[in-house]
Amino acid sequence: MAFQTLGVVYGDMGTSPLYVFSDVFSKVPIKSEVEILGALSLVMYTIALIPFAKYVFIVLKANDNGEGGTFALYSLICRYAKVSLLPNQQRVDEDISSFRLKLPSPELQRALSVKECLENNPLFKSILLFLVLMGTSMVIGDGILTPSMSVMSAVSGLQGRIPGFDTDAVVIVSVLFLVLLFSVQRFGTGKVGFMFAPILALWFLNLGSIGIYNMVKYDISVVRAFNPVYIYLFFKTNGIKAWSALGGCVLCITGAEAMFADLGHFSVKSIQVAFTAVVFPCLLIAYMGQAAYLMRYPFAVERIFYDSVPEILFWPVFVIATLAAMIASQAMISATFSCIKQAMALGCFPRIKVIHTSKRVMGQIYIPVMNWFLMVMCILIVATFRSTNDIANAYGIAEVGVMMVSTALVTLVMLLIWQTNLFLVLCFPIIFGAVEFVYLTAVLSKIQEGGWLPLAFSSLFLCIMYTWNYGSVLKYQSEMRGKISLDFILDLGATLGTVRVPGIGLVYNELVQGIPSIFGHLLVTLPAMHSTIVFICIKYVPVPYVPLEERFLFRRVGHKDYHMFRCVARYGYKDVRKEDHGFFEHLLVESLEKFLRKEAQEIALEASTMVVERDDVSVVSDIPSSPADAGDLHVPLLSAQRFGDDSLMSGTEGNAPLPPSSSITEEDPSLEYELEALREAIASGFTYLLAHGDVRARKESFFTKKFVINYFYAFLRRNCRAGTATLKVPHSNIMRVGMTYMV
What we know:
This protein is an alpha/beta fold and about 750 residues long. The chain is about 60% helix and about 10% strand. Belongs to the HAK/KUP transporter (TC 2.A.72.3) family.
């Protein structure tokens, strides 16, 4: 797995020697060895401080059950503090095996104070969400520039080697390589990583061996750059130009965020081993070798990488460099896919098609729409800028922005969850935040030279994500206000004021409690209603995965003769929802049957207890059913009973022994009647009852809210993927009711 990380995670950082020094010395001309050693020292300590010290040893440990990225950090924080803006949290979610965490200790007042401050202040919740969305959008913005920069840097090596190979030829060849790169993404990260890892391993071997060759041949004294005094001399000698050169120096760590964002594809240890044993030493040696060459030939900065390669090795190195540059893009492409998937699951991005490319590693995904969008944008960037120096000016801003966001979120994790010593907590943002802020000020100076491009892309995706989250929260609040009273349903009687026909009606809604307003529209619109009604809520909880046996929660709505139930289907933000409607219906029915048996067991147990206390058997038939709005949902139904062990079924009544099914059937014959009615309904088929909702802002709303909801959010809703598309439900089984949500 560590070997495969070379092909997916470290491609971007590994190809940085192609262009770092050429960009740095385009701002600071070489006048003496101070510039060379100072720039080399800056690069070495930047790599040691940010990717090595910060990410490898600290940030990677802040993972969410093996998942990385800004959304994983947000999910982790949401489990410890109720900071999600969508009010669909339930206490029963904490019973999920992957949810259970060590809560902040009551003795540590600091952690509790932070938790209380986050939960009680809506402004802090909004700021936290904004930071997460901003970090995610910058990863996507960086993913657009990385392929363009890497591929074009490698192809430009042919200029000066082949007569007539001008800028137009560089652009055309780069575009062809980009098309090839994005075309192979559909095969999946695992296959791509397996194919690419040997090439990157050979690339790092080349970097190290050529670096050693140059150091031995030209100037071994470049090892003096380990002395950080040369950084001071570099700034003292060049002043404002040295500060501007930091914008080029930051290019050596582009792709560092991919180490964390791509964590779900691999493991913490594999990423740590690969960076420590291969990537870090090879990069240091490569930069030292280039610096040694510049000590002898200071005017070779424009083509420093290819000029420093021995003549006999040029063509092999060029082929490997071109392949490595294509692979370098893989890190940010994979990170973009992961970020989009997590954003969709947490309600911050419109639903689009996600293809899971591996049966063994669930985090390996492919998103066709994003893949082709990235390809088109990369081609446009290459065709427009036509120069690696111009693209380099746009490169790095988004990367530094993501690093600062991750610093802020990990600091919050250290305060709230890790409960680290306060001195160490303060050291983390002070040291790393200060370094990243200095780099941010340097790269922001390049906005007019092309730095606006990643900011424009990031702003576009930030607007999409924030608008989708904002509209979804308002829609959920509107549904909460419009839910139907249980008393109204009870007044209608078991027939619901209409004709009940055999079949199961699955009423999809977003409420975890209460009867949705769509049900009232269905009663008014349809001439008949199904004999069994199940209100289904697809809910994503802030964990990566929810075990299948803990997925469904059931509760009865009304009395037994109503045959109405509520089901909450819980998924983690990395869970696969690729089951077809038949498999989903099978799991649903299996869970419902277990729920009915479990309910009968509890009633029989309670009745037998009451008989012992009071010799009054008549109370058995008077036990009321659970109302729709009381208490939490019942515990998961697909438990160890799937494997035949009834005694391991969890229950809200503790671990008391349950009577055998045979005795239950004798004491409560209504169970067999209800199960038989359920089987008849199953035989008649399933109907998916959906709301074809239109979300509109109220008339008294401000103009900005009307514009965002009525036009932007409405456009996203019309063009996103329907929920039934995930289950591949036949159109003949779908019934839609038009509704308008006023928010």
